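Supplementary Note 3. Input sequence used for the single-chain structure prediction.
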Amino acid sequence: MSTKRRITVLDDGELSIVRFVDKKIVDPAVIEALGEELNSLVLVDKRSTLLLNFEGVEFMSSAALNKLISLNSKVKAAQGRLKLCNLRAEIKEVFTLTRLDRVFDIRKTEADAVAAFKL
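The predicted structure, written as discrete structure tokens, is reproduced below.
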């Protein structure tokens, strides 16, 4: 596995549970590094079943959303699955307003999301 600075990754069999280091994902350099680390999970580490746990993330910019959209495309191209969980109400609202809640599988808790992978 490659070294990660913006995320932590817990591998649970085929599933990689990703947690974010930063509470606010707004700085362009941080977002770029985050995007590279997320993409490397799929392209370098060959992990295509990902759960992004947003617990602790208080805010993220629209540029960060673009990185998630790009990641979703890479996961689909690898015939994998991507789920999100523990989004704060404010962040979930942005997904709803931009209709990204229709693109991403968003679950309330990590346990809900892990269970959904087993369906």
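The mean pLDDT is 95. Residues 28-43 form the longest helix (16 residues).
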